[in-house]
């Protein structure tokens, strides 16, 4: 009896979800055993310790259930050195992506036989193996910043006969070469100009991008002469390029309500707008107010006099912060701020820009990036530009 293809179960799952449409990529999924690329230990959110990930090993039944399903799994925390007790980690630093998202990204590249591909972020090597199946070892270059992650991926890939060019280094500065396609499995706040400069005109760049306030969205850029532009096409929550990720320290690290330099005031802006989950708003807010983060706390439910009230903190990790006291009665809302930036004023201006543009969803937003790394955000067409905030976009 002929043995089933190693990726049969996953291929059937993805086909049932409608996630794989291209027969060539379907054949690649059939040929590659994803489980073989998952390390013996993965990390999942620790329900008993919010903010931490707890290790789960391959002798746990949940491990195999998760590995066989359409899930992303964290495969490294804290750059390989877990900082918590019993192997717990604070910051996920490498993963194996959700298979349906992998397919969305690979199919968005619209590759042709013989195309060359630069992959930023080898990770476990699973996506690299799919690229090799589809295009051949000689047409795939993959860059991984973490030496330990890279070495494990190399061993797994070579064990199955895949021998692309594997490079240990900073993906923002890839090896010299010109490629037909570039795909990144790490998110970028600023798209490195090299990714545009090293893609042939007529080629495609597929990357998770976002200005950093919310998680990234999948961006597909068509490359022209010295520039590229395209729309955001799907959700794509990925880890950030290591030199672009921000501190994971909690909000109170950056806020000092006892600072004698604080300034009290009022705003007409509802402080809760920073929590508006509209993906388009999140992109525009991050673009107009770079570096922004927030934390929100509801009033004590036992304090009936404060029912529905909340305190919203906003901060930039560089010395500016503010709080807004939401009350159901409406404006004006009391504020307190410190630092060189008036964050509530910046957020209010961003809200007006978003509304004036027709409150676009993320699917109406696009980006133009030059080979020098200059970024322009636009709505619907490249001529309808959303100007950056006072500190520049992203």
Care to describe what's here?
The protein has 394 residues and is of the alpha+beta class. Helix content is 22%, strand content 27%. It is built from nine helices and 19 strands. The strands form four sheets. The chain has a ten-stranded mixed beta sheet with strand order 7-6-5-8-9-10-11-17-18-19, with helices on both faces. The protein has a five-stranded antiparallel beta sheet with strand order 12-16-15-14-13, with helices on one face.
Distance between the ends: 56 Å
Rg for CA atoms: 23 Å
Mean pLDDT across all amino acids:
96
Order of helices and strands: HHEEHEEHEHEHEEHEEEEHEEEEHEEE
Oligomer: single chain
Q: Shape from CA axes?
A: globular
Count of discrete alpha- or pi-helical segments spanning 4 or more residues: 9
Main β-sheet: number of strands, strand sense, barrel status? Answer: 10 strands, mixed
Instruction: Describe the strand arrangement of the main beta sheet, using strand numbers.
Output: 7-6-5-8-9-10-11-17-18-19
Which structural class matches the secondary elements? alpha+beta
Please give the share of residues in helix.
Answer: 10-25%
Provide the β-strand percentage band. 25-35%
DSSP strand tally: 19
Uncertain runs are none
How are the SSEs ordered, and which strands pair?
Blueprint lengths: L7 H9 L6 H9 L9 E5 L7 E5 L3 H8 L4 E5 L14 E5 L2 H10 L8 E4 L5 H10 L4 E5 L2 H13 L5 E4 L10 E6 L8 H5 L1 E11 L7 E7 L3 E9 L27 E5 L11 H10 L4 E6 L11 E6 L5 E6 L6 E6 L4 H14 L8 E6 L4 E5 L5 E2 L8
Parallel strand pairs: 5-6, 5-8, 6-7, 8-9
Antiparallel strand pairs: 1-2, 3-4, 9-10, 10-11, 11-17, 12-16, 13-14, 14-15, 15-16, 17-18, 18-19
